[in-house]
Amino acid sequence: DAFFCSANAVSASGEVVNVDGVGNRTNAMTFGPGKVFIVAGMNKVTPDLDSALRRVREVAGPMRARSLGMDTPCARTGVCTDCNAPQRICRITTILHRRPMMTDMCVILVNESLGF
Predict the structure, then answer these.
(1) What is residue 40's predicted lDDT score, i.e. its pLDDT?
(2) Would you give per-residue pLDDT tens digits along the chain (116 residues)?
(3) Burial of 97 (0-12, 13-18, 19+ CB in 10 A)
(4) Cα torsion for 101, 97, 74, 22, to the nearest 10°?
(5) CB-hemisphere CA count at 13 Å for 97?
(6) How many CB atoms lie within 10 A of CB 105?
(7) What is the DSSP letter of 82?
(8) Alpha helices of the chain — where are they, by DSSP H?
(9) Coil, helix or strand for 59?
């Protein structure tokens, strides 16, 4: 079995950062499937972990909330305010510093802009 997903950010130093509201993606990435493929465009690559986390708060999170029609401050303003809104989509943060034990994982970077 295989699980295909994307990432909110990938740092040049090797970390993969994801933020979810439910945890279905973040949990499935780290344990369960026989093989995990993470596909991300070059627009998601950042210089380091700090900028990857900033990208999630300033780009990926607000854009995703807006695309889902969520009633959150970030969907309205385009900037994360670490809100407490009922429809908040950033509830679970995972940072993969290395491949999890017992999980066969492959990160594929595509030389295009893919998603947000």
Answers:
(1) 98
(2) 899 999 999 999 999 999 999 999 999 999 888 899 999 999 999 999 999 999 999 999 999 999 999 999 999 999 999 999 999 999 999 999 999 998 999 999 999 999 99
(3) exposed
(4) 10
(5) 1
(6) 17
(7) -
(8) 24-30, 49-55, 61-67, 73-77
(9) helix
Which helix (H) or strand (E) segment is 35 a member of?
strand 35-41
Backbone angles phi, psi at 60, to 5 degrees: -65, -50
Residue 32 has a pLDDT of: 83
In the chain, where the domains are located = 2-110
CB within 8 Å of 62: residues ≥ 6 apart: 74, 75, 77, 78, 79, 80
Q: Are 38 and 107 in contact (CB under 8 A)?
A: yes
- What's the rounded Cα separation, in Å, for the pair 89 and 72? 9
Please give the single-letter amino acid code of residue 23.
G
